[in-house]
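> forwarded from #structure-qc
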């Protein structure tokens, strides 16, 4: 059985958390998604231009099967770049599922390192790191399971005592856990946006190569 949690520290109560005066991390979500929508709109406009009237008129100037194949391949390459960018950026607009288990995701390694490097700035005296602030929930769950399975009256009373202390610690650290989950939620969206930006660089390259190839063939014809 998990060892009983320490007595709650009255000096580290719920009130006066280090982030009380700061805006919620979730306030950044609309801005991140607005940037994603702007990027999607920009690549959508490029795609509309690629399949607009100009390129279709230029196709009529292509002569021969070889030139048609090159022109078609170049246009498809450019459209593939647009599709790739829109597909990757659209992932930013999908709300991620964020739980305490999400904090073990490699994408959140940077957030954990940031918090664990200076836990007092984030948790005050309530915890010494991410694992420490999360452990009270696990302890309470283990005690609850042990209490349910226990039949001895004496041990049940002892388990109830420990469970009460564990629940007090959960209540004390819950504001920090909620803040941490909010940060993790934003961090996931931020990471998805950074990944999408890298894919967009590849997409720009594909669009450029495809457009140059298409214009070269149609211009020569």
């Amino acid at each position: 059985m998990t060892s009983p949690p320490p007595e709650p520290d009255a000096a580290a109560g719920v009130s006066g958390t280090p982030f009380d005066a700061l805006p919620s991390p979730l306030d950044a979500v609309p801005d991140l998604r607005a940037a994603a929508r702007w990027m999607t709109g920009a690549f959508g406009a490029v795609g509309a231009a690629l399949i607009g009237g100009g390129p279709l008129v230029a196709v009529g100037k292509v002569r021969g099967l070889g030139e048609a194949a090159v022109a078609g391949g170049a246009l498809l390459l450019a459209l593939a770049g647009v599709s790739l960018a829109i597909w990757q950026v659209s992932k930013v607009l999908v709300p991620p599922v964020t739980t305490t288990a999400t904090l073990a995701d490699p994408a959140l390694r940077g957030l954990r390192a940031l918090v664990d490097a200076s836990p007092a700035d984030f948790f005050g005296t309530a915890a010494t790191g991410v694992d420490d602030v999360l452990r009270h929930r696990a302890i309470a769950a283990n005690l609850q399971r042990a209490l349910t399975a226990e039949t001895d009256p004496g041990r049940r009373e002892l388990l109830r005592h420990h469970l009460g202390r564990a629940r007090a610690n959960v209540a004390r650290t819950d504001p920090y856990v909620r803040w941490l989950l909010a940060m993790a939620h934003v961090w996931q969206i931020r990471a998805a946006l950074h990944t999408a930006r890298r894919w967009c660089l590849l997409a720009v390259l594909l669009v450029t190569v495809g457009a140059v190839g298409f214009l070269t063939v149609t211009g020569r014809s």
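QC bot note: DSSP finds seven helices and no strands in the chain. Helices lie at 29-50, 53-59, 65-90, 109-117, 119-123, 130-149, 153-220.
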